[in-house]
Protein backbone atom coordinates (compact mmCIF):
# COMPACT_ATOMS: atom_id res chain seq x y z
CA UNK A 1 0.00 0.00 0.00
CA UNK A 2 1.22 3.54 -0.75
CA UNK A 3 -0.55 5.19 2.21
CA UNK A 4 0.06 4.10 5.79
CA UNK A 5 -1.44 5.41 9.02
CA UNK A 6 0.27 4.89 12.39
CA UNK A 7 -1.10 6.10 15.73
CA UNK A 8 1.17 7.87 18.22
CA UNK A 9 0.98 10.32 21.14
CA UNK A 10 2.32 13.83 21.69
CA UNK A 11 3.35 15.31 25.07
CA UNK A 12 1.37 18.37 26.13
CA UNK A 13 1.85 19.09 29.82
CA UNK A 14 0.88 15.86 31.54
CA UNK A 15 -1.55 14.97 28.77
CA UNK A 16 -0.86 12.68 25.80
CA UNK A 17 -3.06 13.89 22.93
CA UNK A 18 -3.33 11.52 19.93
CA UNK A 19 -1.23 12.12 16.83
CA UNK A 20 -1.81 10.34 13.54
CA UNK A 21 1.34 9.75 11.49
CA UNK A 22 0.42 9.51 7.81
CA UNK A 23 3.06 8.31 5.33
CA UNK A 24 2.41 8.50 1.58
CA UNK A 25 4.70 7.12 -1.12
CA UNK A 26 4.16 8.42 -4.66
CA UNK A 27 5.96 8.43 -7.99
CA UNK A 28 7.79 11.58 -8.98
CA UNK A 29 10.93 13.47 -8.11
CA UNK A 30 12.52 11.71 -5.10
CA UNK A 31 12.02 13.81 -1.97
CA UNK A 32 10.97 13.63 1.66
CA UNK A 33 8.59 16.23 3.07
CA UNK A 34 7.54 16.43 6.72
CA UNK A 35 4.46 18.55 7.55
CA UNK A 36 2.18 19.05 10.55
CA UNK A 37 3.82 21.77 12.70
CA UNK A 38 7.02 19.87 13.59
CA UNK A 39 9.72 21.57 15.61
CA UNK A 40 13.43 21.29 14.78
CA UNK A 41 14.00 17.95 16.52
CA UNK A 42 10.98 16.47 14.74
CA UNK A 43 12.11 17.76 11.33
CA UNK A 44 15.48 16.12 11.89
CA UNK A 45 13.76 12.76 12.37
CA UNK A 46 13.80 12.10 8.60
CA UNK A 47 17.59 11.81 8.71
CA UNK A 48 17.52 9.57 11.79
CA UNK A 49 14.84 7.38 10.22
CA UNK A 50 16.76 6.99 6.95
CA UNK A 51 19.94 5.81 8.71
CA UNK A 52 18.02 3.60 11.16
CA UNK A 53 16.14 1.79 8.37
CA UNK A 54 19.30 1.17 6.39
CA UNK A 55 21.25 -0.08 9.43
CA UNK A 56 18.34 -2.33 10.40
CA UNK A 57 18.58 -3.84 6.86
CA UNK A 58 15.31 -2.48 5.59
CA UNK A 59 14.89 -0.86 2.20
CA UNK A 60 14.52 2.91 2.34
CA UNK A 61 12.18 4.07 -0.46
CA UNK A 62 14.69 6.60 -1.73
CA UNK A 63 13.27 6.63 -5.27
CA UNK A 64 9.82 7.70 -4.12
CA UNK A 65 8.25 11.03 -3.32
CA UNK A 66 7.65 10.65 0.43
CA UNK A 67 5.18 12.84 2.30
CA UNK A 68 4.82 12.52 6.08
CA UNK A 69 2.00 14.30 7.87
CA UNK A 70 1.68 14.61 11.65
CA UNK A 71 -1.98 15.31 12.35
CA UNK A 72 -3.57 17.36 13.79
CA UNK A 73 -1.47 20.11 12.28
CA UNK A 74 -2.27 22.69 14.97
CA UNK A 75 -0.88 20.53 17.79
CA UNK A 76 2.76 21.32 18.68
CA UNK A 77 5.14 18.36 18.28
CA UNK A 78 8.52 18.13 19.94
CA UNK A 79 11.41 15.74 20.42
CA UNK A 80 12.18 12.44 18.74
CA UNK A 81 9.15 10.56 20.07
CA UNK A 82 7.68 10.14 16.55
CA UNK A 83 10.79 8.55 14.98
CA UNK A 84 9.61 4.98 15.44
CA UNK A 85 6.10 5.74 14.19
CA UNK A 86 7.50 7.40 11.06
CA UNK A 87 9.86 4.48 10.38
CA UNK A 88 7.08 1.89 10.80
CA UNK A 89 4.83 4.01 8.60
CA UNK A 90 7.44 3.87 5.83
CA UNK A 91 7.76 0.09 6.22
CA UNK A 92 3.98 -0.27 6.13
CA UNK A 93 3.57 1.97 3.07
CA UNK A 94 6.34 0.16 1.18
CA UNK A 95 4.95 -3.30 2.02
CA UNK A 96 7.91 -4.46 4.15
CA UNK A 97 5.61 -5.32 7.07
CA UNK A 98 2.03 -6.68 6.81
CA UNK A 99 -0.74 -4.16 6.21
CA UNK A 100 -2.64 -5.21 9.36
CA UNK A 101 0.38 -5.49 11.66
CA UNK A 102 -0.20 -2.12 13.32
CA UNK A 103 -3.95 -2.35 13.75
CA UNK A 104 -5.00 -1.32 17.26
CA UNK A 105 -1.43 -0.24 18.08
CA UNK A 106 0.16 3.01 19.23
CA UNK A 107 3.85 3.70 18.72
CA UNK A 108 6.36 5.83 20.66
CA UNK A 109 10.14 5.90 20.51
CA UNK A 110 13.24 7.71 19.33
CA UNK A 111 15.64 6.08 16.87
CA UNK A 112 19.41 6.03 16.96
CA UNK A 113 21.27 6.02 13.65
CA UNK A 114 22.10 2.37 14.28
CA UNK A 115 18.43 1.45 14.54
CA UNK A 116 18.41 1.09 18.34
CA UNK A 117 15.36 2.38 20.18
CA UNK A 118 15.97 5.19 22.67
CA UNK A 119 13.62 6.16 25.52
CA UNK A 120 11.32 9.17 25.45
CA UNK A 121 9.68 11.23 28.18
CA UNK A 122 6.00 11.10 29.05
CA UNK A 123 5.40 7.41 28.34
CA UNK A 124 3.17 6.85 31.36
CA UNK A 125 0.47 9.38 30.31
CA UNK A 126 0.59 7.78 26.85
CA UNK A 127 0.10 4.35 28.42
CA UNK A 128 -2.93 5.63 30.36
CA UNK A 129 -4.47 7.02 27.16
CA UNK A 130 -3.62 3.84 25.27
CA UNK A 131 -5.44 1.78 27.91
CA UNK A 132 -8.56 3.89 27.44
CA UNK A 133 -8.46 3.18 23.69
CA UNK A 134 -7.74 -0.54 24.31
CA UNK A 135 -4.71 -0.53 22.05
CA UNK A 136 -1.28 -2.16 22.23
CA UNK A 137 1.62 0.17 22.99
CA UNK A 138 4.93 -0.33 21.12
CA UNK A 139 7.82 1.36 22.95
CA UNK A 140 11.58 1.09 23.61
CA UNK A 141 12.63 -1.40 26.26
CA UNK A 142 14.04 1.41 28.43
CA UNK A 143 10.49 2.75 28.88
CA UNK A 144 8.92 -0.65 29.58
CA UNK A 145 9.20 -0.55 33.38
CA UNK A 146 7.55 2.86 33.53
CA UNK A 147 4.69 1.98 31.18
CA UNK A 148 4.10 -1.28 33.07
CA UNK A 149 2.96 0.74 36.09
CA UNK A 150 -0.37 1.16 34.28
CA UNK A 151 -2.45 -1.98 34.82
CA UNK A 152 -4.55 -3.34 31.99
CA UNK A 153 -2.50 -2.12 29.02
CA UNK A 154 -0.71 -4.48 26.60
CA UNK A 155 2.89 -3.39 26.06
CA UNK A 156 5.42 -4.62 23.50
CA UNK A 157 8.96 -3.40 24.11
CA UNK A 158 11.98 -3.79 21.84
CA UNK A 159 15.60 -2.68 21.85
CA UNK A 160 16.13 -2.43 18.08
CA UNK A 161 14.08 -1.58 15.00
CA UNK A 162 15.02 -4.90 13.37
CA UNK A 163 13.72 -6.77 16.42
CA UNK A 164 10.40 -4.98 16.20
CA UNK A 165 10.21 -5.65 12.46
CA UNK A 166 10.60 -9.39 13.05
CA UNK A 167 7.79 -9.24 15.61
CA UNK A 168 5.42 -7.43 13.26
CA UNK A 169 6.17 -9.90 10.44
CA UNK A 170 5.44 -12.79 12.82
CA UNK A 171 8.96 -14.21 12.51
CA UNK A 172 10.00 -13.88 16.16
CA UNK A 173 7.29 -12.63 18.48
CA UNK A 174 8.14 -10.48 21.48
CA UNK A 175 6.66 -11.32 24.88
CA UNK A 176 4.32 -8.64 26.26
CA UNK A 177 5.68 -6.77 29.26
CA UNK A 178 4.33 -8.01 32.59
CA UNK A 179 2.49 -5.50 34.81
CA UNK A 180 4.63 -3.87 37.48
CA UNK A 181 4.15 -4.71 41.12
CA UNK A 182 4.57 -2.17 43.95
CA UNK A 183 7.87 -2.41 45.77
CA UNK A 184 7.77 -5.23 48.31
CA UNK A 185 10.11 -3.32 50.61
CA UNK A 186 9.16 0.37 50.50
CA UNK A 187 11.87 2.93 51.05
CA UNK A 188 12.46 3.47 54.79
CA UNK A 189 11.02 6.64 56.26
CA UNK A 190 12.21 8.64 59.24
CA UNK A 191 10.36 7.77 62.45
CA UNK A 192 8.50 10.44 64.39
CA UNK A 193 9.68 8.78 67.61
CA UNK A 194 13.24 9.90 66.81
CA UNK A 195 12.22 13.49 67.62
CA UNK A 196 12.71 14.02 71.36
CA UNK A 197 10.24 16.31 73.10
CA UNK A 198 8.18 18.86 71.14
CA UNK A 199 4.92 17.17 72.10
CA UNK A 200 2.79 20.10 70.94
CA UNK A 201 4.55 20.25 67.58
CA UNK A 202 4.05 16.52 67.08
CA UNK A 203 0.38 16.96 67.89
CA UNK A 204 0.08 19.73 65.29
CA UNK A 205 1.87 17.58 62.70
CA UNK A 206 -0.56 14.69 63.27
CA UNK A 207 -3.55 17.05 63.05
CA UNK A 208 -2.18 18.47 59.79
CA UNK A 209 -1.74 14.95 58.39
CA UNK A 210 -5.19 13.83 59.52
CA UNK A 211 -7.00 16.59 57.62
CA UNK A 212 -4.40 17.42 54.94
CA UNK A 213 -4.01 20.88 56.46
CA UNK A 214 -1.17 23.28 55.72
CA UNK A 215 1.22 23.93 58.60
CA UNK A 216 3.63 26.75 59.47
CA UNK A 217 6.30 26.09 62.10
CA UNK A 218 8.11 29.10 63.50
CA UNK A 219 10.79 29.20 66.16
CA UNK A 220 14.55 29.64 66.79
CA UNK A 221 17.13 27.63 64.85
CA UNK A 222 17.69 24.12 66.12
CA UNK A 223 14.21 23.52 67.55
CA UNK A 224 13.50 20.70 65.09
CA UNK A 225 11.29 22.36 62.48
CA UNK A 226 12.96 20.66 59.52
CA UNK A 227 13.23 17.40 61.46
CA UNK A 228 9.50 17.36 62.08
CA UNK A 229 8.64 18.25 58.49
CA UNK A 230 10.71 15.33 57.21
CA UNK A 231 8.61 12.96 59.37
CA UNK A 232 5.31 13.92 57.74
CA UNK A 233 5.51 11.46 54.77
CA UNK A 234 5.93 8.61 57.25
CA UNK A 235 2.57 9.25 58.91
CA UNK A 236 0.55 9.82 55.73
CA UNK A 237 -1.53 6.90 54.37
CA UNK A 238 -0.39 5.07 51.24
CA UNK A 239 -1.44 6.44 47.87
CA UNK A 240 -4.52 5.01 46.20
CA UNK A 241 -3.93 3.53 42.75
CA UNK A 242 -5.32 6.53 40.85
CA UNK A 243 -3.29 8.91 43.03
CA UNK A 244 -0.10 6.90 42.46
CA UNK A 245 -0.65 6.99 38.69
CA UNK A 246 -1.20 10.78 38.77
CA UNK A 247 2.06 11.22 40.69
CA UNK A 248 3.87 8.87 38.32
CA UNK A 249 2.53 10.73 35.27
CA UNK A 250 3.97 14.02 36.55
CA UNK A 251 7.34 12.44 37.25
CA UNK A 252 7.26 10.83 33.80
CA UNK A 253 6.87 14.10 31.89
CA UNK A 254 9.66 15.57 34.06
CA UNK A 255 11.97 12.74 32.99
CA UNK A 256 12.53 11.48 36.55
CA UNK A 257 13.22 7.89 37.58
CA UNK A 258 10.18 6.73 39.55
CA UNK A 259 9.89 2.95 39.41
CA UNK A 260 12.19 2.32 42.36
CA UNK A 261 10.19 4.50 44.76
CA UNK A 262 6.70 3.97 43.32
CA UNK A 263 4.11 4.35 44.79
CA UNK A 264 5.54 6.55 47.58
CA UNK A 265 4.30 10.05 48.32
CA UNK A 266 6.54 12.81 46.94
CA UNK A 267 8.39 15.14 49.30
CA UNK A 268 9.73 18.28 47.61
CA UNK A 269 11.94 20.81 49.37
CA UNK A 270 13.05 23.56 46.95
CA UNK A 271 15.73 26.08 47.92
CA UNK A 272 14.52 29.54 48.88
CA UNK A 273 16.29 30.94 45.81
CA UNK A 274 13.91 29.05 43.49
CA UNK A 275 12.37 31.13 40.71
CA UNK A 276 8.67 31.39 39.97
CA UNK A 277 8.99 29.02 37.00
CA UNK A 278 10.82 26.47 39.15
CA UNK A 279 8.15 26.59 41.85
CA UNK A 280 4.89 26.79 39.89
CA UNK A 281 6.07 25.55 36.49
CA UNK A 282 6.49 27.22 33.14
CA UNK A 283 9.09 27.79 30.46
CA UNK A 284 8.75 28.16 26.70
CA UNK A 285 7.49 24.58 26.67
CA UNK A 286 5.69 24.50 30.06
CA UNK A 287 6.76 21.81 32.47
CA UNK A 288 5.46 21.00 35.97
CA UNK A 289 7.08 22.95 38.79
CA UNK A 290 7.81 21.94 42.37
CA UNK A 291 4.20 22.35 43.47
CA UNK A 292 2.97 19.93 40.80
CA UNK A 293 5.78 17.51 41.55
CA UNK A 294 4.52 17.56 45.16
CA UNK A 295 1.01 16.55 43.98
CA UNK A 296 -0.57 14.17 46.54
CA UNK A 297 2.51 14.72 48.70
CA UNK A 298 4.35 17.34 50.73
CA UNK A 299 5.89 20.64 49.69
CA UNK A 300 8.31 21.84 52.37
CA UNK A 301 9.41 25.47 52.20
CA UNK A 302 12.19 26.11 54.70
CA UNK A 303 13.13 29.71 55.60
CA UNK A 304 9.79 30.87 54.19
CA UNK A 305 10.42 34.65 54.37
CA UNK A 306 13.62 34.23 52.34
CA UNK A 307 11.61 33.26 49.25
CA UNK A 308 10.83 36.07 46.85
CA UNK A 309 7.46 37.53 47.80
CA UNK A 310 6.19 37.43 44.21
CA UNK A 311 7.04 33.74 44.08
CA UNK A 312 5.15 33.04 47.31
CA UNK A 313 2.09 34.94 46.13
CA UNK A 314 1.82 32.51 43.22
CA UNK A 315 1.02 29.78 45.74
CA UNK A 316 -2.29 31.37 46.65
CA UNK A 317 -4.31 29.99 43.72
CA UNK A 318 -3.10 26.36 43.86
CA UNK A 319 -3.49 26.30 47.66
CA UNK A 320 -7.18 27.00 47.13
CA UNK A 321 -7.97 25.10 43.94
CA UNK A 322 -5.37 22.31 43.80
CA UNK A 323 -4.59 23.24 40.17
CA UNK A 324 -2.06 25.60 38.56
CA UNK A 325 -2.89 27.23 35.23
CA UNK A 326 -0.07 28.35 32.92
CA UNK A 327 -0.92 30.53 29.92
CA UNK A 328 1.32 31.00 26.90
CA UNK A 329 0.74 32.67 23.55
CA UNK A 330 0.08 29.37 21.77
CA UNK A 331 -1.44 27.28 24.53
CA UNK A 332 -2.88 27.12 28.02
CA UNK A 333 -1.98 24.22 30.27
CA UNK A 334 -3.20 23.06 33.66
CA UNK A 335 -1.11 20.99 36.06
CA UNK A 336 -2.51 19.29 39.19
CA UNK A 337 -1.14 20.72 42.43
CA UNK A 338 -3.05 19.20 45.33
CA UNK A 339 -0.15 19.31 47.77
CA UNK A 340 0.20 19.74 51.52
CA UNK A 341 2.29 22.77 52.41
CA UNK A 342 4.65 22.61 55.38
CA UNK A 343 6.62 25.80 55.95
CA UNK A 344 9.24 26.81 58.50
CA UNK A 345 10.58 30.21 59.52
CA UNK A 346 12.44 32.02 62.26
CA UNK A 347 10.55 34.50 64.47
CA UNK A 348 12.91 37.35 63.60
CA UNK A 349 15.89 38.06 61.30
CA UNK A 350 18.46 36.64 63.73
CA UNK A 351 16.13 33.84 64.76
CA UNK A 352 16.42 34.19 68.54
CA UNK A 353 13.53 36.42 69.53
CA UNK A 354 12.33 35.63 73.10
CA UNK A 355 15.26 33.25 73.58
CA UNK A 356 16.14 32.98 77.31
CA UNK A 357 19.78 33.78 76.51
CA UNK A 358 18.79 37.27 75.42
CA UNK A 359 21.01 37.18 72.35
CA UNK A 360 18.38 38.72 70.05
CA UNK A 361 19.06 42.37 69.24
CA UNK A 362 16.39 42.79 66.55
CA UNK A 363 14.30 45.92 66.87
CA UNK A 364 10.48 45.75 66.62
CA UNK A 365 10.76 47.45 63.22
CA UNK A 366 13.15 44.78 61.97
CA UNK A 367 10.88 42.00 63.21
CA UNK A 368 7.86 43.63 61.58
CA UNK A 369 9.73 44.11 58.31
CA UNK A 370 10.85 40.48 58.39
CA UNK A 371 7.36 39.11 58.98
CA UNK A 372 5.76 41.48 56.48
CA UNK A 373 7.47 39.48 53.73
CA UNK A 374 4.55 37.09 54.19
CA UNK A 375 1.25 38.57 53.07
CA UNK A 376 -1.96 38.18 55.03
CA UNK A 377 -3.76 36.32 52.22
CA UNK A 378 -0.96 33.74 52.10
CA UNK A 379 -0.97 33.23 55.89
CA UNK A 380 -4.76 32.89 55.79
CA UNK A 381 -4.33 29.86 53.56
CA UNK A 382 -2.04 28.12 56.06
CA UNK A 383 -4.36 26.38 58.52
CA UNK A 384 -2.06 25.85 61.48
CA UNK A 385 0.60 28.24 62.85
CA UNK A 386 2.69 26.72 65.62
CA UNK A 387 5.45 28.35 67.64
CA UNK A 388 8.32 26.12 68.79
CA UNK A 389 11.02 26.69 71.38
CA UNK A 390 14.23 25.02 72.47
CA UNK A 391 13.79 22.25 75.01
CA UNK A 392 16.41 20.92 77.43
CA UNK A 393 18.71 18.37 75.84
CA UNK A 394 18.88 15.03 77.62
CA UNK A 395 20.19 11.56 76.84
CA UNK A 396 19.02 10.04 80.12
CA UNK A 397 16.08 8.22 78.58
CA UNK A 398 16.77 5.54 76.02
CA UNK A 399 13.13 4.64 75.44
CA UNK A 400 11.74 5.92 72.14
CA UNK A 401 9.55 8.98 72.37
CA UNK A 402 5.87 8.61 71.64
CA UNK A 403 4.05 8.59 69.38
CA UNK A 404 5.96 6.63 66.77
CA UNK A 405 5.23 7.07 63.07
CA UNK A 406 3.33 3.78 63.04
CA UNK A 407 1.06 4.88 65.88
CA UNK A 408 0.53 8.32 64.37
CA UNK A 409 -0.20 6.83 60.93
CA UNK A 410 -2.91 4.60 62.41
CA UNK A 411 -4.57 7.66 63.97
CA UNK A 412 -4.29 9.60 60.70
CA UNK A 413 -5.76 6.78 58.60
CA UNK A 414 -8.69 6.37 61.00
CA UNK A 415 -9.50 10.10 60.90
CA UNK A 416 -9.23 10.25 57.10
CA UNK A 417 -11.52 7.26 56.68
CA UNK A 418 -14.19 9.06 58.73
CA UNK A 419 -13.87 12.16 56.54
CA UNK A 420 -14.02 10.27 53.25
CA UNK A 421 -17.01 8.26 54.41
CA UNK A 422 -18.87 11.39 55.55
CA UNK A 423 -18.12 13.87 52.79
CA UNK A 424 -16.02 12.07 50.12
CA UNK A 425 -13.07 14.42 50.62
CA UNK A 426 -10.63 15.48 53.32
CA UNK A 427 -11.53 18.32 55.66
CA UNK A 428 -8.96 20.70 54.20
CA UNK A 429 -10.60 20.34 50.77
CA UNK A 430 -14.14 21.20 51.88
CA UNK A 431 -15.67 24.08 49.96
CA UNK A 432 -17.87 26.72 51.58
CA UNK A 433 -21.04 24.66 51.19
CA UNK A 434 -19.33 21.56 52.57
CA UNK A 435 -18.03 23.51 55.55
CA UNK A 436 -21.55 24.71 56.40
CA UNK A 437 -22.95 21.21 56.09
CA UNK A 438 -20.30 19.17 57.90
CA UNK A 439 -18.93 21.71 60.41
CA UNK A 440 -22.14 22.70 62.16
CA UNK A 441 -21.98 24.20 65.64
CA UNK A 442 -24.46 24.71 68.42
CA UNK A 443 -25.81 28.25 68.74
CA UNK A 444 -23.74 28.85 71.88
CA UNK A 445 -20.52 27.61 70.29
CA UNK A 446 -21.24 29.61 67.14
CA UNK A 447 -21.60 32.81 69.18
CA UNK A 448 -18.44 31.99 71.12
CA UNK A 449 -16.49 31.39 67.89
CA UNK A 450 -17.72 34.67 66.40
CA UNK A 451 -16.49 36.58 69.46
CA UNK A 452 -13.13 34.80 69.36
CA UNK A 453 -12.71 35.55 65.65
CA UNK A 454 -13.38 39.25 66.22
CA UNK A 455 -11.03 39.37 69.21
CA UNK A 456 -8.21 37.73 67.25
CA UNK A 457 -8.88 39.80 64.12
CA UNK A 458 -9.16 36.79 61.83
CA UNK A 459 -10.48 37.05 58.29
CA UNK A 460 -13.44 35.01 57.11
CA UNK A 461 -11.10 32.70 55.22
CA UNK A 462 -8.97 32.15 58.33
CA UNK A 463 -12.05 31.47 60.48
CA UNK A 464 -13.38 28.93 57.97
CA UNK A 465 -10.03 27.17 57.93
CA UNK A 466 -9.94 27.11 61.72
CA UNK A 467 -13.40 25.54 61.65
CA UNK A 468 -12.14 22.80 59.32
CA UNK A 469 -9.21 22.16 61.67
CA UNK A 470 -11.71 21.82 64.52
CA UNK A 471 -13.62 19.28 62.40
CA UNK A 472 -10.38 17.28 62.06
CA UNK A 473 -9.77 17.42 65.81
CA UNK A 474 -13.27 16.05 66.36
CA UNK A 475 -12.65 13.28 63.83
CA UNK A 476 -9.46 12.29 65.62
CA UNK A 477 -11.52 11.82 68.78
CA UNK A 478 -14.28 10.04 66.80
CA UNK A 479 -16.71 12.75 67.87
CA UNK A 480 -19.82 13.31 65.78
CA UNK A 481 -20.08 17.02 66.54
CA UNK A 482 -17.51 19.78 66.95
CA UNK A 483 -17.17 20.86 70.57
CA UNK A 484 -15.79 23.99 72.15
CA UNK A 485 -12.48 22.30 73.12
CA UNK A 486 -11.96 21.50 69.41
CA UNK A 487 -12.65 25.14 68.49
CA UNK A 488 -10.32 26.43 71.19
CA UNK A 489 -7.44 24.24 70.08
CA UNK A 490 -8.00 25.13 66.42
CA UNK A 491 -7.87 28.86 67.24
CA UNK A 492 -4.62 28.39 69.14
CA UNK A 493 -3.06 27.41 65.82
CA UNK A 494 -4.10 30.67 64.13
CA UNK A 495 -1.77 33.06 66.00
CA UNK A 496 1.58 33.58 64.33
CA UNK A 497 2.54 36.15 66.99
CA UNK A 498 1.83 33.84 69.91
CA UNK A 499 5.04 32.89 71.68
CA UNK A 500 5.17 29.41 73.21
CA UNK A 501 5.84 29.02 76.89
CA UNK A 502 7.98 26.42 78.56
Automatic annotation (TrEMBL):
SUPFAM superfamilies: P-loop containing nucleoside triphosphate hydrolases, Ribosomal protein S5 domain 2-like. Residues 211-392 form the AAA+ ATPase domain. InterPro entries: AAA+_ATPase, CHLI-like, MCM_dom, Mg_chelat-rel, Mg_chelat-rel_C, Mg_chelatse_chII-like_cat_dom, P-loop_NTPase, Ribosomal_Su5_D2-typ_SF. The keyword Calcium does not apply. CDD domains: AAA. It comes from the Bacteria. Keywords: ATP-binding, Nucleotide-binding. Gene3D superfamilies: 3.30.230.10, P-loop containing nucleotide triphosphate hydrolases. It holds the Pfam family Mg_chelatase. Transmembrane segments: none annotated. NCBIfam families: PRK09862.1, YifB family Mg chelatase-like AAA ATPase. Belongs to the Mg-chelatase subunits D/I family. ComM subfamily. PANTHER family: COMPETENCE PROTEIN COMM, MAGNESIUM-CHELATASE SUBUNIT CHLI. This is Magnesium chelatase subunit ChlI. It comes from Halopseudomonas pertucinogena. The lineage of its organism: Bacteria, Pseudomonadati, Pseudomonadota, Gammaproteobacteria, Pseudomonadales.
